[in-house]
Amino acid sequence: MDIERAQHWQTIEASVAKMTDRLGAPIDEGICHMVTALNALGLYTTSSCEGHLEHGLAYPWVDLEQPETVPLARKAADLLDAAQQALPDQERYHALLREANQIEEEAKQLSLSMAQKLMHYLHAFYQQHPFEYERHLIPDTRMWGGEIRLRSLGAEFQELMDEPTKAQRLPLYREEMDAFAAFLTTLFFSTD
């Protein structure tokens, strides 16, 4: 095993172990492996959850974001604020809107590039892993601000299910996420 690669993994794993949410709670133990694997492969996570029946969402998920999109999103928001301030000067208003739209497009391209990289890994995973449509992991690009949510395709339907069905499906979604995390880990350590 490559010593540098192992040290890189351990550094990320230690960093993930120290991460907390806004309330100071640590990352759920059941999603730590996935967060570590994604970050080790250069896919940067911003939040995650192993899925819960008693609160939050009844499926595991991980949000990812290209770090370069954060300042772009801030700049676009500032330009949109400035555009509102520029009214009634229509020329300045439209110029600021165009600039904000260009920056938002740049951020979108960065996010889509990250989603494409994630799709590459998912494609390789599903070449060797049994495909079950509902459990199939997808990069959900409908998130705000350029974030992408990795989740199972059928996960959002948990909201429609009764409690026993949710309880039955949650472990299946967790298993899929765990299998992908194991795949990414193997990939990380076997890539030259």
What would the keywords be for this entry?
alpha+beta, 4-stranded antiparallel β-sheet, 5 helices, 4 strands
Layout of SSEs?
Blueprint: H1 3-18, H2 29-40, E1 45-49, E2 61-64, H3 69-86, H4 90-128, E3 137-140, E4 148-152, H5 163-190
Antiparallel strand pairs: 1-2, 2-4, 3-4
Tell me what the structure shows.
The chain has 192 residues and is of the alpha+beta class. The chain has a domain of 113 residues. The chain is 59% helix and 9% strand. Strands 1-2-4-3 form a four-stranded antiparallel sheet. A hairpin with a 7-residue loop joins strand 3 and strand 4. Helix 1 crosses helix 2. It is globular, with a radius of gyration of 19 Å. The mean pLDDT is 92.
User: Tell me about the biggest sheet?
Assistant: 4 strands, antiparallel
Work out the helicity level: 55-70%
What is the strand tally? 4
Structural class: alpha+beta
Summarize the entry for a quick read:
By secondary structure, this protein is α+β, with helices and mostly antiparallel strands. Helices cover 59% and strands 9% of the residues. It has five helices and four strands.
